[in-house]
Amino acid sequence: MIIDRRHLLMATASAAIPLSAQTAAKTRTAVIGTGNRGSYLLQAVLDQPVAAVTMLCDIKPDRLDKAATSASRDNPKTTSDWRQVIESDNVDAVFIATPPYLHSEMAIAALKRGKNVYCEKPIGVTPAQVRAVIEAARASRKVFTAGQQLRSIKRLATTVQKIHDGLIGDVVMIKAQRHATADLPHDGTSGDWYFDVTKSGGYLIEQSVHNLDLCNWVVDAHPTRAAGLGAINFYKNQPPGRTIFDCGSITYDYPKGVKMSFTQNVFHPRALPGGGQYIYVYGTKGAVDLMTPAPTFYPIEPGAQPTVLVEKGPPEYAHAHIAAFYAAVNQGGPNPAGIAIGAAAALTAILGHEAMVREKMVTWDDLGVRI
Ligand SMILES: NC(=O)c1ccc[n+]([C@@H]2O[C@H](COP(=O)([O-])OP(=O)(O)OC[C@H]3O[C@@H](n4cnc5c(N)ncnc54)[C@H](O)[C@@H]3O)[C@@H](O)[C@H]2O)c1
């Protein structure tokens, strides 16, 4: 093979470019919190051709080592001090996957330092935390995306669009639930924070925030008030010191009088019908079963046949939300779940939680946060 001098020079130059310069063309990315979700996000980041992993952070050395091994392709720097990530000039985007009570402080610091932020849900566990993230995100020119990844599932987007286009008439009511067959393992990876309500926010805020975000999306609004009751009725003092409810029932009121009934528990026997998660959206022309693999419309007329709105297809690209985040950062693409979505989801969950804790009607205005 004959190689001319120009090509030889180019080949030599490229081989001589240090790794740091090669990754500079990519979005230099850090992950703070490399536990269960952080490890998943790290794989998703490694899957993005536009991203390079330059820093990893966790206070648990074993998790940090494991993450560093997964990302060895990019030779990231590791640290147990998240503020080093924020201060680094070698980081353009920060993924935050620490326990929920730490999200707001980390996200705000990252935004103030000019980083793009992908922040796991919930973006905060108190109204004050959410308000502070809203202010920081609005003051920043960078992208802030909440980890409400249901927003990037095409089948849901298609169905929600059909509902917004009038398929079921006016939305009048939602019945939704998130029932699990068991608690999270008490000695699991997140056992040291999950059962402390001040750290996780509780089951509604930490997990049902996804379901509630979907309900907000369908109604195209956030609720105005909520009433509810919750309790620790099954896992009493398990694990010891537990402060999060294991069951609850909340009624939400949305604009135009739309009502939502939401229940949660973590003791639904596997064989008992009616378990798992669902969202039934009732309209004046019929109802939609939204959360199934093939969302379906059931017309109100007696005898009318159900219509499958989106046929069950092959699994969608699992990292679509992360890809959309990078498209927003690099190409000005639409933010898949910006601050308004992340804040409304967190506050909707906080509203329901507050109603259960106070055992009285709580209004959105009581939370004292404007989106
Ligand atoms: N979007 C989703 O579907 C989804 C799924 C699971 C979890 N999550 C969210 O991801 C977050 C993490 O959940 P998880 O299940 O991965 O928990 P986890 O406990 O497995 O991981 C959290 C990690 O954060 C680390 N950490 C704690 N304090 C830290 C600090 N000060 N600095 C750096 N690292 C610190 C812990 O050592 C741990 O490794 C939660 O907010 C959770 O709600 C989202």
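^ nicotinamide-adenine-dinucleotide complex. Residues 339-358 form the longest helix (20 residues). The domain at 5-150 is CATH 3.40.50.720 (Rossmann fold).
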